[in-house]
């Protein structure tokens, strides 16, 4: 997990620092409540959070398909938008991974390096930087299945992948365990990919859908009512599958649980 | 580069999934169970991650000094009485094998599993020239009888149910089609194949490792057929890829501990046979094969794929492979390792393979020699994009999207005027052909009435000021 250490911001965090809120395009358009929950949650800790209004997309759909030429404009704009912030926080593992790990075709100027190293996924930021130990305002009286996305686990290292040997850890579960009433249900395949995979979910529709359906069945078999994830893009796919299959599961972002809404 | 038609793994995988309710779930569950066993076995070794690192370093070292180790191997194997042949490509390999057989008047041979011989298309080549070739391992024999290539590098017929095998054996070796007990089927296959062991004039094997300091090669199997093939006929021919070199005997301690645990979740393969020179009265030929390997060694982004010890763990852990079946890849090597190896043989033909991945990254984490498989898949996508092999719709839509994403005013304008169809779709999905693939098995998410940005302007507008450059 070299990416994790490389990305550690060399500037230690202090309270007065400027935090840039990174809201990925699909959260802006489809899940604004996740953006609101993230912003409110960060504000609860007294942080100075700004939202650059010119943000569009981190370039991931193109970059993930190997199309670096067409990803470049979005990537450069991202750097422009966020270069003046000390820390950049986004509620989306795969988009943060894109910035941290895949902005490597841009010229690595000081700004680019600063933005790459200073961009954090929300769970990492709460767990590793703020070291939050309680969420007294939050309560969630439901059985929850946790879905840490592959980008978050294997790209950012927020939980131990089952393939890697060593002591288990799971930063998302850690944070959720501090929420009153919340019960995490164990599942059979906690870190088997759900099949979203960005453009993969349409270019490889049959395989993607089968992976998503297996995931939903795993969750429902273990009595989950809610599926909670730091990555709404996986949930968008899983939710679409579950709705079509008539499975009664609700999908929300970890920020909504930790902030106590909005739902 | 070849001009063959592109392989379309997405379509072939869909066929595997919709075929019936049996094959894909069985395939997925079996391989998942193998992974569970692998995880348990690996967890029982406290130094597992260290072993992976050492294995990776040994392989990197050997590959970066390959010329030296190959010559050392040749010298030592020759000293022990083996005949060493060099083959530049598949044709060279097949010709070398054929001429050895011809010199010995051999018209029938028995072989055990070798992915390299598959890669070279050896069996059809020899059969064309009147040599009868019989696979001796159960899975390989099943695939041979069904005229299919192996679908997995360790479990060649894993995409078949035992009912499939019962039907196949009924058609080909005359068993009862309703008798699908695995022990019965295995026994029948043995009874059918054993006489050929005695009739064969030569036995062929592959080689998992070739030890430079002794000229030994090691063959790891569970059924022991390689040993019979090497021990019964007077002539033993082994095909070995040049990347199989390791420097010393003691390195085997690292690789043997990793191989079977990674491959099948067992502490060791049943047989780890070391062949050093011919047995008494026998003759041993070793064909060292390049077939694109030295070219791959020169590829900065991809040479690490040569570290592969063909354990198949990346296939077992791959959520896409488990749902696709290996035949969907339309190539000798399938699964994650296939995705990064196959394009080195034919970039155009296999240009779709790197897209048959959700990039979950599990393959890189499971690989016992720490090949950065997932990163290489993404790098292959970059190669395919540069070569213009991206599907046309993606190329055009990415060009539009790339422009819009780079220009916030256009982006926000697009958001505003979104047509009804767009208003129900995550727009980053719209670049692909159409929305049909999303909606076939999924409901569309609804666009929110108010975007986050609009909410922010309405609720936090004072904060918005300092960052807003217009
Ligand atoms: S790439 Fe790694 S995991 Fe896959 S078959 Fe080769 S050695 Fe095994």
What does this protein structure show overall?
The complex is a heterodimer of chains A (263) and B (470). Chain A has 263 residues and is an alpha/beta fold. Chain A has 14 helices and eight strands. Chain A has two domains: 18-129, no CATH class; 134-258, Rossmann fold. Chain A has helices spanning 2-6, 25-30, 32-44, 60-64, 68-82, 93-102, 110-118, 122-129, 150-156, 171-176, 200-203, 205-221, 232-245, 254-259; strands spanning 18-21, 48-50, 87-90, 119-121, 143-146, 183-184, 226-229, 250-253. The radius of gyration of chain A is 17 Å and the shape is globular. Chain B is an alpha/beta fold and 470 residues long. Chain B contains 23 helices and ten strands. Chain B has a six-stranded parallel beta sheet with strand order 1-10-7-4-2-3, with helices on both faces. Chain B has a four-stranded mixed beta sheet with strand order 8-5-6-9. Chain B is globular and about 90 Å long. Chain B starts with 8 loop residues before the first helix and ends in a 6-residue tail after the last helix. Chains A and B meet through α2, α3, α4, α5 and α9 of A and α1, α2, α15, α17 and α18 of B. Iron/sulfur cluster (SF4) is lined by residues 262, 308-314, 337, 366-369, 371, 373 of chain B.
């Amino acid at each position: 997990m070299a990416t994790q250490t490389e990305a550690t911001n060399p500037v230690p965090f202090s309270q007065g620092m400027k935090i840039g809120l990174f809201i990925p395009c699909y959260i802006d358009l489809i899940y604004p409540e996740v953006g609101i929950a993230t912003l409110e949650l960060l504000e609860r800790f007294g942080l100075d959070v700004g939202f650059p209004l010119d943000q569009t997309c981190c370039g991931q759909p193109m970059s993930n398909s190997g199309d670096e030429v067409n990803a470049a404009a979005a990537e450069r704009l991202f750097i422009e938008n966020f270069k003046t912030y000390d820390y950049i926080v986004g509620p989306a593992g795969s988009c943060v991974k894109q910035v941290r790990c895949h902005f490597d075709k841009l010229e690595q100027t000081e700004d680019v390096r600063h933005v790459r190293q200073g961009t954090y996924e929300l769970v990492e930021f709460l767990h590793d930087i703020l070291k939050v130990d309680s969420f007294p305002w939050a309560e969630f009286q439901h059985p929850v299945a946790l879905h840490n996305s592959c980008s978050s686990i294997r790209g950012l290292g927020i939980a131990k992948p089952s393939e890697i040997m060593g002591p288990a850890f799971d930063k998302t579960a850690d944070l959720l365990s501090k929420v009153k009433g919340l019960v995490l249900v164990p599942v059979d395949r906690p870190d088997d990919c759900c099949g979203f995979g960005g453009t993969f979910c349409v270019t490889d529709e049959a395989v993607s859908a089968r992976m998503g359906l297996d995931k939903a069945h795993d969750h429902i078999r273990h009595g989950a009512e809610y599926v909670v994830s730091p990555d709404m893009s996986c949930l968008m796919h899983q939710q679409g599958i579950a709705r079509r299959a008539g499975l009664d599961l609700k999908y929300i972002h970890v920020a909504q649980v930790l902030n106590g809404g909005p739902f | 580069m070849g001009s063959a038609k592109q392989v379309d793994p997405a379509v072939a995988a869909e066929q595997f999934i919709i075929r019936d309710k049996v094959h894909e779930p069985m395939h997925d569950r079996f391989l998942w169970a193998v992974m569970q066993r692998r995880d348990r076995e690996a967890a029982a070794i406290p130094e597992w991650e260290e072993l992976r690192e050492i294995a990776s370093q040994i392989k990197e070292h050997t590959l970066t000094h390959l010329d030296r180790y190959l010559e050392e191997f040749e010298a030592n194997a020759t000293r022990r009485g083996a005949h060493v042949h060099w083959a530049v490509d598949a044709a060279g390999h097949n010709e070398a094998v054929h001429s050895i057989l011809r010199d010995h008047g051999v018209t029938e041979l028995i072989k055990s599993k070798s992915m390299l011989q598959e890669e070279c298309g050896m069996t059809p080549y020899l059969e064309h020239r009147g040599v009868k070739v019989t696979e001796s391992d159960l899975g390989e024999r099943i695939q041979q009888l069904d005229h299919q290539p192996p679908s997995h590098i360790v479990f060649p017929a894993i995409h078949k149910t035992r009912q499939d095998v019962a039907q196949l054996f009924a058609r080909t070796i005359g068993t009862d089609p309703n008798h699908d007990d695995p022990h019965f089927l295995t026994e029948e296959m043995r009874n059918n194949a054993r006489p050929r062991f005695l009739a064969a004039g030569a036995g062929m094997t592959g080689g998992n490792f070739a030890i430079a300091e002794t000229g030994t090669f090691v063959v790891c199997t569970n059924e022991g057929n390689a040993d019979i093939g090497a021990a019964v006929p007077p002539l033993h021919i082994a095909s070995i890829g040049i990347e199989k070199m390791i420097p010393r005997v003691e390195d085997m301690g690292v690789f043997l501990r990793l191989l079977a645990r990674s491959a099948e979740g067992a502490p060791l393969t049943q047989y780890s046979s070391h062949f050093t020179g011919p047995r008494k009265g026998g003759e041993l030929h070793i064909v060292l094969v390049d077939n694109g390997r030295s070219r791959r060694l020169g590829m900065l982004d991809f040479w690490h794929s040569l570290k592969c010890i063909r354990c198949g763990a990346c296939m077992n852990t791959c959520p896409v492979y488990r749902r696709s079946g290996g035949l969907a890849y339309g190539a000798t090597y399938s699964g994650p390792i296939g995705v990064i190896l196959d394009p080195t043989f034919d970039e155009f033909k296999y240009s779709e393979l790197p897209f048959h991945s959700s990039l979950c990254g599990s393959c890189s984490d499971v690989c016992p020699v720490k090949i950065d498989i997932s990163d290489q898949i993404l790098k292959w996508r970059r190669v395919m994009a540069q070569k213009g092999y991206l599907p046309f719709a993606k190329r055009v839509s990415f060009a539009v999207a790339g422009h819009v994403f780079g220009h916030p005013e256009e982006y926000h304008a697009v958001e505003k005027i979104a047509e009804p169809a767009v208003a129900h779709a995550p727009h980053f999905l719209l670049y692909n052909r159409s929305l049909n693939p999303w909606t076939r098995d999924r409901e569309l998410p609804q666009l929110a009435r108010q975007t986050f940005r609009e909410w922010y302007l309405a609720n936090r507008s004072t904060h918005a000021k300092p960052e807003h450059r217009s």
